[in-house]
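Forwarding the complex inputs:
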Amino acid sequence: MKTTIEEIEQQIAGEFENFEDWLEKYNYIIEMGKDLPLINEKFKTKQNLISGCQSSVWLHADYKDGLVFFSADSDAVITKGIVNMLIRVLSGQTPEDIISSQLTFIDEVGLKEHLSPTRSNGLVSMIKQMKFYALAFQTKYGA
Amino acid sequence: MIKVDFNIDKVRKDFPILSREIYKRPLVYFDNAATNQKPVQVLNRMDLYYENQNSNIHRGVHFLSQEATSAYEEARETIKTFINAHSRSEVVFTKGTTDAINLVAHSLGRKLLKAGDEILITFMEHHSNIVPWQMVCETTGAYLKVCNITEKGEIDIEDFKTKLSRKTRIVALNHVSNTLGTINPVKEIIKITHDAGALVLIDGAQAVAHLQVDVQDLDCDFYCFSGHKIYAPMGTGVLYGKEDILDKMPPYQGGGEMIAMVSFEKTTYNELPFKFEAGTPNVGGALGLEAAIKYVNGFGLATLAGYEDDLLKYGTEKLLQIEGLRIYGESALKTGVISFNLNKVHSYDAGTLIDKFGIAVRTGHLCTQPLVGFFGVPGFIRASFAMYNTKQEIDKLVEAVIKTREMLL
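Prediction (whole assembly, two chains):
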């Protein structure tokens, strides 16, 4: 059985549970942001760029065997850490599940501020774009 | 020189917001170039207006309307004296600097500017002194020219002289750069521009709280500033314009207040400054602005400038001790603005972590995207000081920046 979006969200929330303060929390996000590139360099194109006022995100999507696979990157390491988590949650899921996902874990781990529209770091647009890709694949392949 | 009566502890008590805690730490507010905090004297004045004097102005014969009108016009008089305008007719209330620049750009666009004319700005303008001119260029066929700056963040005067031509109709530039803190040699530029036969608009948003502005001495044609950057409420601002020039300019917006006679065949406009003040103005805000000016005058701008310059020097010295830290804006003449980056650290990451220390700094392009391109960075981290900041707060910032650097590198 494939792990569901909710299950992965719970896993991530669990990882954050033991952090005593913001320093530990952000150290963890930064570590995730410093992980290997989450996207093949050839997909870091202008077309895949989501520009925010503060930071930018590159997002690429593939469709295989009824599932959507995402890869992404950001120029800012904290944004990239959050991008990493979003990919863990949404990549390899079906278009329907991606479209209907609520992504409540972001609020649960106390990172909601990064998804405020005024923050303008590219993350809000990235989630919209991920769902848009899912919808496009669903329409195209009738998944 | 700092006057003896500038008691920082007493000053801080005038600003209620400074007692707030952010993430369980005392707030350190270093985003003053975006907007500064309001003293209780300003808040009380606005309360008094809404509790006791609220009434629409310039049109009622009843007692309250007369009282509110007098108070509003006295506020205009205070502003006139503050910037040393020649007459009250030259002081137009606006929503802020952006509104004032749009007023001038669009009004001139209707009458003075035509295809082939040139508007000259500088590379270090805030978007609000770029975009209105671009809009006017689109409608009139005029061209926007941009004067270069140097690596130190100063206007390249030689380039300015080259770009100023017989086709230049207006030069628009800031008195102080919001990103670099540079105090520009506006008096010299105004003189050169006038010799070439063009008008000059000065964006004074970042200057009025830190420098004594004398519009007659500067001889500028227009001077714009916002109330909220001089301890006054948001949504208030001023356009100063020379009377003979304002007189020739067509109104920008139509409505009540700005008319003399209205019929469906023809409307005649009110005299200055009311011609440019369509609709019910922000009376409470204007009175707050007056209170803010009186508050600042109580210390004297020279005293405040001296105190803030001390903070600038201290902050610059301390921050530069951090490895890999670069400051943008290295002019010898600056207000209390320090924009910087840490080598290899994205400004968004730094800003996010510095915030967690309860310190409010600005990050990003700071509404000056051309400067982001000029310095080839994704953005800046900016600390900007006001009269209520202290060296102890700067120490906290330095500590936070060091910790931030450790976490991110």
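DSSP finds six helices and three strands in chain A.
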